[in-house]
Amino acid sequence: MEGTEQLTKRQMKALQTRENLLKAGRAVFLENGFQKATMTQINKMAHTGYGTAYVYFRNKDELFVELMETIMQKMYEVADLPFRPKTKEEAFSQIQKQTQLFLKAALEEKAIMQIVKEAIGASEIVSEKWNNIRTRFINGITTDIDFVQKTGLARPDLDASLIAKGWFYMNEQLMWDLVLEEVDGDFEKVAVNLVKLYTGGLYQ
């Protein structure tokens, strides 16, 4: 753990306990699903004292939200890739790469992402967290669209924030379809089709 050199033994132990609870939580959620998982099960798997989990997390929803942040890191890294294309071809290539990486990251965490989908429908806290994640992605996409509009690569008559929402929602829906195995698992094919549709309407 970075930045732990100045921590006391007690603080180090607390950090380790938290990590143990998160690790145990992931295992319990994967085994039982979100709705059937309990804090008692998580506490037991983490080998912590009775009720210790509640010292760190008010409930399983709060623990799961922290797990989600960890899971989403790889997707955030994709979203944060620099986007400064100089040509339409360069833009298409970068968007296709980002889309493929986004879908690939979700599929690499397919089992836990299936639990995320369940939890979004079962927990107001998790649903709110997912909406915050959506907003982060949409804001990033809006910035990218603003850039290509200002450089003359994209149509200036379109509302960047509306297009960003539509683009993310398309990616999100097909991500869930792939994760839940409701469409063919070829994420590269999915990405190519998505990007052709998106760029065909946005770019001049």
UniProtKB/TrEMBL annotation:
Q: Identify the InterPro entries for this entry.
A: EthR_C, Homeodomain-like_sf, HTH-type_Tx_Regulator, HTH_TetR, Tet_transcr_reg_TetR-rel_C_sf
Entries under Pfam families matching the protein: EthR_C, TetR_N
Q: Where in this chain does the record put each HTH tetR-type domain?
A: 15-75
Q: Which residues bind DNA?
A: 38-57
Q: Which UniProt keywords apply?
A: DNA-binding, Repressor
- Top-level division of the source organism's lineage: Bacteria
Ranges in a coiled coil? none
Database matches in SUPFAM superfamilies: Homeodomain-like, Tetracyclin repressor-like, C-terminal domain
Q: Kindly give the PANTHER family that the UniProt entry links to this protein.
A: ACREF/ENVCD OPERON REPRESSOR-RELATED, TETR-FAMILY TRANSCRIPTIONAL REGULATOR
Q: What is this protein called?
A: AcrR family transcriptional regulator
Q: What's the source species for this entry?
A: Siminovitchia thermophila
